[in-house]
TrEMBL record:
The gene is trmFO. This is Methylenetetrahydrofolate--tRNA-(uracil-5-)-methyltransferase TrmFO. Keywords: Cytoplasm, FAD, Flavoprotein, Methyltransferase, NAD, NADP, Transferase, tRNA processing. GO terms for cellular component: cytosol. GO terms for molecular function: flavin adenine dinucleotide binding; tRNA (uracil(54)-C5)-methyltransferase activity, 5,10-methylenetetrahydrofolate-dependent. It catalyses: uridine(54) in tRNA + (6R)-5,10-methylene-5,6,7,8-tetrahydrofolate + NADPH + H(+) = 5-methyluridine(54) in tRNA + (6S)-5,6,7,8-tetrahydrofolate + NADP(+); uridine(54) in tRNA + (6R)-5,10-methylene-5,6,7,8-tetrahydrofolate + NADH + H(+) = 5-methyluridine(54) in tRNA + (6S)-5,6,7,8-tetrahydrofolate + NAD(+).
Length: 452
């Protein structure tokens, strides 16, 4: 890329969750934004549309509990910062127990519409294949950064990007699920409404069902890795066959755990394992199989998944898949303003920085957008303190993590400075609310300070 860009305009590469949020935050701060997106002109194997903020793996932003859960706290902070992603997620949310799930197509359409309608945001289609030498840029190309740009980033950093594998769970047509076997219930009946309390479809397994399923899963034909790929999976998104290889009961104590559920078809008999499906669209016509990311070949998936009671005649809208996911060694390469140390006119945001998850990605976009806007306006905006969810994440990826063993990370209370308390270690019931109360106060003060 050779043309010179005005330093008064912020350029953002990638209109995923992070890039979309960054564009919104900067534009709302009064900075003109040019948003570069290669889709749909050039697609990826995982994306299906050219929409902004398309969710490709799941439709869930996970827990929305802002008092006892670090992810829910991150939701709270993004709402407090007038985040576009949270606003549109709330507008298009679906029943999901205590989680925040969305109608993914309606959500992406709404984000795209808001960005395109903003008077300070200009869309430029096409692939960016090299890192610009001047101007102010945010690179938010996500885990599916194109080969050309990935090579340019590797050349600029002097290091090869790290890689792991991210997996996609299958989606089932709801009307093909046998509800004489399955039933609707969220674990422990979580949720304030009946829809929330019945947001999941549950398929019970006896011990014999489970053992046969594990045998078939282990024997199923898997997709081979391409040359140069390694099986460095991120533990938060393990394929089910990899979990099964770690022990026959791993799935039964993971995504197939039978706790907090009562089968109304047979209330006296406790299932040995349970497969859960979560609603994937507002119509309730599609459900994704929770935690069932896989690298099995498509034919094997059909055979194995139809062994699940309730899914014997299931029709699949999408089968599972797995793909390479690249990210920077951020503790070595980025400063705490998310700038590339060797090229400080370039900021990075989203999953390419080594955060994991939709919400975490969008939060890093929010922060990068605000920091870049402040810089263009002649101000320096430090990150929120590490006692906040946003601050804990950026601190982790830009210095808190060990560079030699750096791996993608979800937000969690283990990233926060410990709570000092008298009388010994606090239990979760009191410790987590203490973390969130402290974080909310600190993040609120950061927002006030950020206004200049």
């Amino acid at each position: 890329m050779t043309e010179t860009h005005s330093t008064q305009t912020l350029h953002i590469v990638g209109a995923g969750l992070a890039g979309s949020e960054a564009a919104w935050q900067a534009a709302q701060a009064g900075v003109p934004v040019t948003l570069h997106e290669m889709r749909p002109e050039r697609g990826t194997f995982a994306h299906r549309t050219g929409l902004c903020a398309e969710m490709v793996c799941s439709n869930s932003f996970r827990s929305d509990d802002d008092e006892k859960n670090a992810v829910g706290l991150l939701h709270w902070e993004m709402r407090a910062a007038s985040g576009l992603i949270m606003e549109m997620a709330d507008r298009h949310r679906l029943p999901a127990g205590g989680a925040l799930a969305v109608d993914r197509e309606a959500f992406a359409e709404a984000v795209t519409e808001r960005l395109r309608a903003h008077p300070r945001i200009r869309f430029v289609p096409g692939e960016i294949t090299d890192l610009p030498r001047d101007g102010q840029w945010i690179i938010a190309t996500g885990p599916l950064t194109s080969d050309a740009l990935g090579q340019a980033i590797a050349a600029a950093t002097g290091r090869a990007s790290l890689a792991f594998f991210d997996a996609i769970a299958p989606i089932v047509h709801a009307d093909t699920i046998d509800m004489d076997i399955a039933w609707r219930q969220s674990r422990y009946d979580k949720g304030d409404t009946e829809d929330e309390q019945k947001a999941y479809i549950n398929c019970p397994m006896t011990r014999d069902d489970y053992e046969a399923f594990i045998d078939a899963l282990l024997a199923a034909e898997k997709t081979e890795f391409h040359d140069g790929e390694t099986a460095g999976y991120f533990d938060g998104c393990l394929p089910i066959e990899v979990m099964a290889e770690r022990g026959r009961d791993t799935l039964r104590f993971g995504p197939m755990k039978p706790v907090g559920l009562t089968n109304p078809h047979c209330p006296e008999q406790k299932p040995y394992a349970v497969v859960q499906l979560r609603r994937d669209n507002a119509l309730g016509t599609l459900y994704n199989i929770v935690g069932f990311q896989t690298k099995m070949k498509y034919g094997a998936q059909l055979e194995v998944f139809r062994m699940i009671p309730g899914l014997r005649e299931a029709a699949f809208a999408r089968l599972g898949g797995i793909h390479r996911n690249t990210f920077l060694n951020s503790p070595t390469l980025l400063d705490d303003r998310m700038r590339l140390k060797s090229h400080p006119h370039l900021r990075f945001a989203g999953q390419i920085t080594g955060v994991e998850g939709y919400v975490e990605s969008a939060a890093m976009g929010l922060l990068a957008g605000r920091m870049a806007a402040a810089a263009l306006q002649g101000r320096d905006l430090p990150p929120p303190g590490p006692e906040t969810a946003t601050g804990a994440l950026v601190h982790h990826i830009t210095g808190g993590a060990e560079a030699r063993s750096f791996q993608p990370m979800n937000v969690n209370f283990g990233l926060f400075p410990p709570i000092e308390a008298r009388g010994g270690r606090r239990g979760r019931a009191t410790r987590y609310p203490a973390y969130t109360a402290r974080a909310k106060e600190a993040f609120g003060q950061w927002l006030l300070d950020a206004q200049g």
